[in-house]
Please model this.
Amino acid sequence: MTINRIINGVRWRIGFLVKTCADCMEFLKYYLLYPFAALYRNRDIWIVSERGTDARDNGFHMFRYLRENDPSGAVYYIISKDSADRKNVAPYGNIINYGSLKHYLFFIAAKVRISSHFMGTSPDRSFYTRKRDWIRLPGKTVFLQHGVIQCDLKQLHADKTRLDLFICGAAPEYEYVKATFGYRNNEVRYTGLARYDQLHDFETKKQILIMPTWRKTLHARRARGEALADSAFVKRWNSLLKNEKLLNAAKRAGVTILFYPHVELQRNPGLFVSTDPRVILADFAHYDVQTLLKESALLITDYSSVHFDFGYMKKPVVYYQFDAEEFFSLHYAPGYFDHKTMGFGEVTDDEAALVDFVIDYIENGFSAKEPYRQRSTAFFPLHDRNNCSRIYQEILRLES
Model:
């Protein structure tokens, strides 16, 4: 037995003990506070959140709608004290500090829990996700989603979530979830995503946004203590950021390239490098994703669901999928969405071809091609500013 195996075994046992102790503490908090939460159950409390640390996604947009249209209602937003997004929520009031006593009481007592993430309204997402069968929560749970679903996400099937209302952002997604995720009639509804209300007024800059998504293989490398910088994933994206043909074309046209890695990758600063002044390495703390999507003229991504937001706005996308076989075998199982036949732009696994596609869009003023615009129209038959309103009506229906 090697020293590394011994060390890893000790780490695993310590981690298991720490997690077990933490779970016991959460159980204790829940069962001690449950009787006291009953004092709040007659207040018709609605709580809204994302992940407890942010306010820039569907949860925030839904909360803002509720506060603007019924400011007297008992609707509260849960967010941590030190969140950079707290300023977004402050104008609307009714803020609950994440992890506070009030958070626990209102979470247990709430008549409606609304979040863009599963168990996002809870004081501990990991615990309440893993132990959901051990916990009794009165009231209804509304899942706003973080983005349009394109793969078969087993963790969101009905037997894993017990959701009362599952919101969908596109027509084909709705049909797929309703047919395969195991929910009952009326539990899955196509309303459009809450944040899509804000995707109608925007001014586009001469800016290309690059947003690759996360990989479970990278998580495995991190767990093994292997350097993420040595992964093929990081090397391929770094190569693109240094591509001279792309950088020269951007310089000639006065185009800025903004690279926004997945938030999981932002935990490892320094992975992605560029010395070119036209390349901006963006992060969660200083850039709002929806703002970037609205102001950018072209999106380069692999499989990230942000391409749906771009497609909704009928702006061009280029998909760089150099590891498709690995992604769909190790990260997400394939679903209904085929990027080559349903996507909003070209698909390639080759850097040179990708750069040629991008340069073509630059030289043609970033105009989306008609076949891709037609795909967008078919994919999003609901294309208006009434998404939050439809969601609100569905919640009222759910209550009745």
Notes: The chain has a mean pLDDT of 91. The chain has two domains: 8-198+385-399, 207-379. The chain has 17 helices and 13 strands.
